[in-house]
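User: Here's a structure from my thesis project, written as structure tokens. My advisor, Dr. K., wants to see whether a designed sequence matches the one we expressed. Can you design one independently, without my sequence as a hint?
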């Protein structure tokens, strides 16, 4: 038997910080498999750390969201928010399900085209679209969501020199009872900017105003904000019909539905508190149905929900590097993955499961990443079994925004695998190497020789 390390005993006060009136926080049971595949075997085959995506879960999430809206309103179209997770295999899974693409930059736009999305099924949002981008989107009949007046006038100029009439929507921001207000994107409704933009579009006769768009925020914990947004957007569409005799084809309610990731400092687990998709669907569709559209002019409802469709389909697997005691005696565990690939750890207390079974003994632990940076903290306080070097963990709700926002700061980005619906593992992004990272670097001649 291996000799145990000696560790000098420490006396420390009992930590009751995790108690609330419902008792102490429970520890999640070990998670040995994902979609029938052993976590240990994936780490052996593809290295640690490793991102894992479940194709089955993505499709399930999509189908149930679609069902929630379609059973309440007949004309619904989803568009996958590329920035939430733009790995091609993820985007293509959504596209196979019938989802269009929602992009916020030229880079994402080109990705959508390469993924086989027809131009007229791409929604082009975002505050930065160059003239070249606008021309391309015009020629492809994409849906251009206008963010500001400068962009609007540039597009009118482009339309003046083109035989195509650009298809546009006005991005609207509004007071939905959520503060601070999200007013940096699009035109404000209450102060009349949105109507000004609509008037410019209608009187220019150069653009085809087909939609109205709003994305009221992200991780919206109240459905009421969507009720207000859907009512206000509907009213705006009806005003456009009355004033300009123009029917708006679609209302785009954006994204922002909660995933089941728990916000830092939240009293309860998100699973028990955040609205379900059908609750968002209920308020949005009811507001549109009651707005006063005639049967023939009911607009399409477009949705760009991101995190709610992918967060729980993504996992990060990792391995313990070492343990230590902090100055106050707290247990600290250092993992082989850090915040450079866990951007959302700034907002969420990610659920973490051990992989190996340890029985009932647990201890409050600070979970650190491997970076030589004070802020590299995965969890400030998590109740975990006593993990040893080499033991593994699964981080849950990692599907949204972590892969797209990850960076090779100090450590390189790991591989990503997808488990398909037949429980087969596919590598969908290789781990970075020194070679791929340095690919775009150039070293001038005068720096070629190093003699030390
Ligand atoms: C980011 C974004 C989304 C997706 O937001 P989620 O909060 O992930 O649902 C949708 N629409 C627009 C315009 C966005 O910028």
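Assistant: Designed independently from the structure alone:
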């Amino acid at each position: 038997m291996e000799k145990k390390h000696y560790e000098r005993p420490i006396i420390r006060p009992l930590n009751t910080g995790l108690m609330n009136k419902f008792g102490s926080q429970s520890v999640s049971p070990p998670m040995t498999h994902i979609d029938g595949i052993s976590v240990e075997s994936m780490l052996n085959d593809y290295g640690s750390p490793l991102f894992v995506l479940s194709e089955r879960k993505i499709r399930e999430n999509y189908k149930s969201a679609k069902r929630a809206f379609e059973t309440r309103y007949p004309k619904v179209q989803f568009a996958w928010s590329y920035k939430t997770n733009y790995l091609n295999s993820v985007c293509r899974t959504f596209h196979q399900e019938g989802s269009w693409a929602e992009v916020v930059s030229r880079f994402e736009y080109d990705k959508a085209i390469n993924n086989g999305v027809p131009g007229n099924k791409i929604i082009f949002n975002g505050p930065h679209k160059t003239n070249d981008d606008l021309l391309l989107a015009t020629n492809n009949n994409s849906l251009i969501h206008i963010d500001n007046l400068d962009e609007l006038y540039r597009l009118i100029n482009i339309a003046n020199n083109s035989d195509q009439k650009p298809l546009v929507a006005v991005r609207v921001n509004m007071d939905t009872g959520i503060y601070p207000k999200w007013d940096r994107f699009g035109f404000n409704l209450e102060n009349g900017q949105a109507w000004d933009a609509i008037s410019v579009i209608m009187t220019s006769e150069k653009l085809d105003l087909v939609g109205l768009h709003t994305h009221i925020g992200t991780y919206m914990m109240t459905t009421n904000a969507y009720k207000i947004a859907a009512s206000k957007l509907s009213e705006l569409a009806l005003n456009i019909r009355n004033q300009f005799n123009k029917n708006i084809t679609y209302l785009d309610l954006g994204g922002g539905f909660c995933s089941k990731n728990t916000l830092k400092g939240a009293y309860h687990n998100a699973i028990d508190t955040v609205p379900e998709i059908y609750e968002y669907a209920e308020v949005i569709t009811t507001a549109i149905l009651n707005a006063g559209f005639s049967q023939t002019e009911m607009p399409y409802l477009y949705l760009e929900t991101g995190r709610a469709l992918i967060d729980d389909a993504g996992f990060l697997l990792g391995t313990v590097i070492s343990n230590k005691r902090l100055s106050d005696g707290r247990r600290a565990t250092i993992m082989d993955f850090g915040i450079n690939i866990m951007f959302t750890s700034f907002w969420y207390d990610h659920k973490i499961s051990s992989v190996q079974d340890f029985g009932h003994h647990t201890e409050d632990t600070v979970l650190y990443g491997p970076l030589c940076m004070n802020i590299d903290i995965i969890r400030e306080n998590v109740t975990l079994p006593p993990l040893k070097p080499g033991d593994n963990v699964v981080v849950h709700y990692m599907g949204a925004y972590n892969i797209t926002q990850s960076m090779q700061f100090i450590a390189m980005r790991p591989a990503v695998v997808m488990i398909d619906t037949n429980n087969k593992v596919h590598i969908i992004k290789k781990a970075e190497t020194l070679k791929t990272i340095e690919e775009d670097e150039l070293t001038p001649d005068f720096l070629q020789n190093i003699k030390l």
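When you compare it with your expressed construct, this may help: The chain has two domains: 33-52+313-431, 125-305.
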